[in-house]
Amino acid sequence: MTQQGTIKKVLPGGMAEIEVTRRSACGHDCAKCGGCGGLETQTLYVTARNRAHAQVGERVLIEGETGQVLGIAGLVYLVPVVLFFVGYGMGSGLRWGAGLSALCGGVLFAAGIGAAMWYSRRMKARNHVPFEITKVL
Questions:
Q1: Nearest to 88 by CA among 75, 106, 76
Q2: Strand, helix or coil at 112?
Q3: Which of 38, 86, 99, 131 has the fewest CB atoms found within 10 Å of its own CB?
Q4: Which residue blocks in the chain are alpha helix, DSSP H?
């Protein structure tokens, strides 16, 4: 996975904060489509290893391990939803009724979000990031 961005901050420990403008996958032909309502881009801030010694304001190319990025996305998006259905199914299996089953699912959903937040903080504390600056443009 390769993206371009602009260095916003040089951080200690050989890291940098990069502003990445993520574009949608629709092809940006809004005149023909109009489905997105004109929301073509989204700005994200990413922390990456700065082995290229890029400075603030420089455009850079960053790469991330696709498998690792997809794993993180699965943890953040998929695990809480799966846990919700597991909780709802457990409640239904115990014949708690729809309200308590949904509550059980909601508790497990929140636990999944909590697990994702814990994992994110743990990775940040270990200074582990899935992105690296590979080139100054």
A1: 106
A2: helix
A3: 38
A4: 66-73, 79-93, 98-125
Q: Rounded to whole angstroms, what are the CA distances from 57 to 11, 50, 83?
A: 14, 14, 42
Q: Give the pairing of strands 59-64 and 2-11.
A: antiparallel
**35 close to 26: Cβ distance less than 8 angstroms:** yes
Residue/partner pairs of 107-110 with CB below 8 Å, 24 or more apart: 108/83, 108/84, 109/80, 109/81, 109/83, 109/84, 110/80
How many other CB atoms sit within 10 Å of the CB of residue 83? 20
Dihedral class, residue 20 (left if φ above 0, else alpha if ψ from -120 to 50, else beta): beta
Tens digit of each residue's pLDDT (9 = 90 or more) over 66-111: 777 788 788 888 999 999 999 999 998 888 888 999 999 999 999 9
- pLDDT tens digits, 16-58: 999 988 765 555 555 556 555 555 567 888 888 888 889 999 9
Residue 20 contacts by C-beta under 8 Å, 6 or more apart in sequence? Answer: 3, 4, 5, 43, 44, 45, 46, 62
pTM exceeds 0.85: no
